[in-house]
Amino acid sequence: MQGIKGLYRIGYGPSSSHTIAPFRIASLYRHKHPGCDEYSILLGGSLALTAKGHGTLKIIEKALECDRICFDYDLNTKENIMNITGTRSGIQYDTWHAFSLGGGAIKIDEYDAGDLNEVYEANCFEDIKKQISDDPKSLLNYIYSHEPDLKHYLIDCLNVMFETVDRGLNTEGLINEELKYYRIAKKLYEKATDRKDYLVAYSYAACEENADGGMMCTAPTLGACGILTSLMYYLHFNELYSDEDLCDLLAVAGIFGNCIKKNASIAGSEGGCQAEVGTACSMAAAAIAYKEGYGLKTIEYAAEMGIEHFLGLTCDPVLGYVIIPCIERNAISILRAYDCAYLAEQLKNVKDNLISFDSVVNAMNYTGNKLARELKETSLGGLASEFKNEKS
Ligand code: SF4
Questions:
Q1: How far is the C-alpha of 279 from the C-alpha of 374, rounded, in Å?
Q2: Is residue 115 part of a domain?
Q3: How many domains in the chain?
């Protein structure tokens, strides 16, 4: 498996696949081929179908700082391709054939961006369990022995998460003209009195910032950024957890997210929303179970449950914006993550879990492959088409 760092990437919203990845591809190209005065870019798959709503064109313009960019689209390919060719004083440079893989990860045929490096020899959670004891701390030791500088990296991620929520709680106004979506995080926060209220307000703060193109941290994607971000913010500012402790929670969450990334997908364009919000719910449930001091079995059970009840969840963002159903769905998911941790501990006292974490990940992969293309971040079906029908 690849490193956990790949699940927590810092970049501009609103979509890790559609803004962070294209920004990285364009920036790397510009770095390798400086001084271009013209570019042609071919976008394919979901990158083409939701380019406007997901802010792909704007973010590429921002990375290239050039007003002569010719965009072309391939609506038939399934892969999220981004081919880029630069020209300088009439001389054309080589074309890069690049791919957005989900969560901001990229693959470029002509350049090694380093995203595909393997860090763990394990390929699934069963493999990991063979190398650790029943003590959850041994899971953490296992992670840090493979990624010794992870904590240092996660501190930066935490700071971005905190800044994101702070901005979100202190900003009001219209985010999206077409949907008439106004920010509500500040109002929610002012009325908050208990844990659920605060988590919802923080989740909205993060997701609204994301929808507005703010600087974010994926966890494991930007569509699902509100779930772990709200958890981290709540635990730090309401329950006074230290940065160190929160890094441990992100690491535990990360190993489960990594298993999903390896054996299913964390990209809505590949697996539907179960791959984004389902994965984040699973990661948060594992982190909550760990912080509660539950045993390894309960942590695995909570992570499994976080996916199981999101299986089949479709990705059909209205008008291609990461707003409806995304923002509300993040809030639901962080509440559910607490329920999963609670229920896993309750149930494990009376029964064994009959579905392993690895099995539910395989089921997610199977289900994602069966989902219609219209329901995988293309905005061609489901809520997206219902909304269009209603308006027409
Ligand atoms: S519906 Fe889910 S997967 Fe699709 S863009 Fe929204 S959060 Fe991401």
A1: 21
A2: no
A3: 2
